[in-house]
Amino acid sequence: MHIELVSQILQEAPTARKALIDNYANLHKVADYCENNYLGLVQALEETKALTTQALASVTYQINSLASSVLRLLDNQAKQLKYMENSINLLSLTSVQLSKHTYLN
């Protein structure tokens, strides 16, 4: 399960990164478009607000999606560490019991 999750996140990461880069470029295009076509007009301000809000909402969604993937990965790793800790504790107890048994015999 851990390997599948890591693999999925690694497969999704380039696409998510590209989407963020595309949004960055789109924000610059929006700014250039508004500056070149509507400089000084009230309509430009409203259009810029709407386009910027839309772009920022998209970026927010993508960041949230990536953060959720990272949290799932960290949760999975925490579970694996807990499993390993339990295994080590069990081995330690077994070793102590074997030592006691050997000492008594």
From TrEMBL:
Which terms does the UniProt entry file under GO BP?
neuron migration
Any one Gene Ontology MF annotation carried by this entry is: signaling adaptor activity
Q: Which InterPro entries match?
A: ABI
* GO cellular component terms, A-Z: actin-based cell projection; lamellipodium; SCAR complex
Q: Give the record's family classification.
A: Belongs to the ABI family.
Its protein name is: Uncharacterized protein
Identify the species of origin.
Esox lucius (Northern pike)
